Amino acid sequence: MAIAGPGGVDDAIAAGIDLDGTPIPEPMLALYNEVMDLESKRARSGVKKSMRNRVVKTGAKHFDQQTLDQRLQAAGWEGLKDKEIAFFYG
Questions:
Q1: What is the pLDDT of residues 55-67, one digit of tens each?
Q2: Is 68 exposed, middle or buried (0-12, 13-18, 19+ CB in 10 A)?
Q3: pLDDT tens digit string along 12-26?
Q4: What is the separation of C-alpha 56 from the centre of its chain, rounded to a whole number of angstroms?
């Protein structure tokens, strides 16, 4: 299964197939779906905060610490927090 774009992993999960073509075990799918269902019901604190969290989580995979920090600030968000630096770059 070719996976690309932000929805690719979701598509694979929905199909129940891992990237190598093997089936995802039912207990894994059941737990994942239960947790995602609970998450979908959780109250949110704000879209911009959620956006920043996603940018940090994913951006840390693509940018070095200094670049991500600068890009966050240039976009109008707070720069990287110490706990984020320790988690993603430590």
A1: 999 999 999 999 9
A2: buried
A3: 999 999 988 899 999
A4: 9
What the block records as the tokens of 53 is 């969290």
Both tokens assigned to 65:
């610490």
Global confidence as pTM? 0.74
Q: Give the contacts of 48 (CB within 8 A, at least 6 positions apart).
A: 77
- Cα dihedral 22→28→32→34 (10° resolution): 140
Beta bridge partners of residue 17, listed in sequence order: 23
Q: Determine what percent of the chain is predicted with pLDDT higher than 90.
A: 79
